[in-house]
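Table S4 entry, sulfate adenylyltransferase.
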Amino acid sequence: MNVLKIATAGSVDDGKSTLIGRILYDTKSLTDDKLQAIEEKSKQRGFDYLDFSLATDGLVAEREQGITIDVAHIYFSTPKTSFIIADTPGHIEYTRNMVTGASNSQASIILVDARNGVVEQTYRHFFINNLLRVKDVIVAVNKMDLVDFSEQKFNEIKGEIEYLASKSEYQDQKITFIPISALHGDNVVSKSARIDWYNGHSILDHLEDLDTQTIEKDAKARFPVQTVVRPKTEEYHDFRGYAGKLYGDSIAVGDEVTILPSATKSKVKSIHFFNQEYQEAQKGSSINLTLEDDVNISRGDMIVKSGEEPKAVKQLEATICWMDKTPLQASEKYYIKHGINDAQAKITNITSLVKTDFSGEETAPSQLSLNEIGQVSLKVSKQLFVDSYKDNKSNGTFILINPRTNNTSGVGFIN
């Protein structure tokens, strides 16, 4: 079955949690006790409708304030597709949470309140989806019932977003505009008869039509070794396998591979998944490889197809989203975690502060503050094998860890 990871985004009160709750309700994905709790809580609040946001806002503070603070992951399935939705917060101070939620998503839903139109947070969320190379974006113009289902208002918002998209350097993104009322279910799971001028799909129909295998451009195969498998049993006395998760592209028995950092070459002898053996493994598979040659491989090494080696670097240029209350400054030292490899890193330069409304960059800022995005240069203590983020998402990202607090301070996307 198709598995689709989706992120939601939008300004405060645009209706993200309500939209997800409505999808869960209309697809009959809510348990009886959850539905009963929503009905009772809605009555306590004096609502004459079901408050579907209660289906996702799990923290006490979220329920009290009626906002989303943390990233909530919601799982549900239809006969066609299994979905994982990251419900991300809309407040500007939680931009880091939005980046976290969207970083693993294959598609994104950006909500816009039809009454307010495009606001500052819309720019920010659209920019982040561009930065993270999310290929399929739905702009859901919500609360259409509060503007009398105005086609003119919908087209005004559509025009503003299309203008933003024209200023982006990432032009492979597909943007779909859908007018909805999340509260009443118009164009959420089923087409709405009240918006007769709209001829497209509902949100769920559109998502079900997406092919997860073609959403992301094929990247080169990257297989970071998590552990070396030596069973030490009589049946598998000579077995030596390399376990990990395959990223980027498929790999097959007989493929010539190169092991990094040693640059030793061999061929794939077998591919195992539990007690099954396969001729080929697809990207995203957690597998166990054996090679034709008995080579020295340990945790942290990377197996790639020969001729498709990543860059070996000790200097990085990257775009960083800063997630720490302590600002990022030049000359500061951090731990860098790239995949399963760790190293020490030093910030050598903060090149620019990126403005998330697509208006350009501020050159040579003194620091990056919480939730700001900037271009930086780093030196690392040992050689890393990297790709640019646009070529390979999994091998083109890293995190910076504060050595004094062990907090994750920033997430980087390699240029």
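Residues 111 and 390 are 25 Å apart (CA to CA).
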